[in-house]
């Protein structure tokens, strides 16, 4: 079955305010796809257009190749899990799961069969007769998934469903959600402001800012090859140093970074001499010992934090810019202390230069 979702030149305006800029995006059948972006960037608005709670101002939403124009929410092959789960507190677990089927006139015996199958899927076989209030946070989460799947949607829409859980449970539920998606094979569209969630679960991620998709890619590509300064700084931790491009040499460019000297990195897109740009270096790409071909910058240590498997240093450059550095614990020495000078080296292929000076 084709359960792809196509945002076909979709725009959403609320009065004069454009919440979603023109977007053309195809989510494949059976994909775990996430929209990642800060609060207010338009994630829920996109889900609402797919589910039918909102009609796009321009363009169309196609599910399985079919236009959804004029198709009301309850007639779409989608199911939604809300941020607050919205379970019915006075019903039992089974009644919650069966609710959507009952509304559709499915017989009692068929409903029972479906809820038993779904309870098994979410590993809560023995909980059918429990009241919602008797469940833990993680169990409620799984019941919300079972209830959404009961109506056999082609597309499951999830609006920050883990945000109410504590950290440990949230991390555990990531693995469970991914496993459930694999077992059912349906398209999952997941929205979150938490990059860890998006990166661990998704086949592909769309990074959004202010109503606009900045980049769509698989998690590793997003991390290694951010296309914009926003993506470079929103996905994972990053250090951005700004400067002016003074040399372009095939895939590499040299920036004049004032008091930090001349620094080299991999070019993102077509860059030219004279442009203002930002050189991004991830904390884990700094080394204390320079090897052949590495570039270095000087800083002063502000803070050393021991995190177990690794160390983090906060350092300040002569231009008073804060840098974050991550080192293996084996690199610890007494010389690493507040106020000490430190030479930070990196390989040019690990730094990426993106045009523009602004980043988050
Ligand atoms: N019904 C509405 N009327 C007017 N503005 C809205 C409406 N829904 C959302 N917005 C605005 O659209 C923007 C995106 O909102 P939303 O999609 O909820 O963001 P997110 O889910 O990413 O936090 C926000 O600025 C929000 O205030
Ligand atoms: Mg939202």
UniProtKB/TrEMBL annotation:
The keyword Mitochondrion does not apply. The keyword Electron transport does not apply. Keywords: ATP-binding, Nucleotide-binding, Transport. Pfam families: ABC_tran, TOBE_2. InterPro entries: AAA+_ATPase (IPR003593), ABC_SmlMolc_Importer (IPR050093), ABC_transporter-like_ATP-bd (IPR003439), ABC_transporter-like_CS (IPR017871), Mo/tungstate-bd_C_term_dom (IPR008995), P-loop_NTPase (IPR027417), Transp-assoc_OB_typ2 (IPR013611). It comes from the Bacteria. GO terms for cellular component: ATP-binding cassette (ABC) transporter complex. SMART domains: AAA (SM00382). This is ABC transporter ATP-binding protein. It comes from Marinomonas profundimaris.
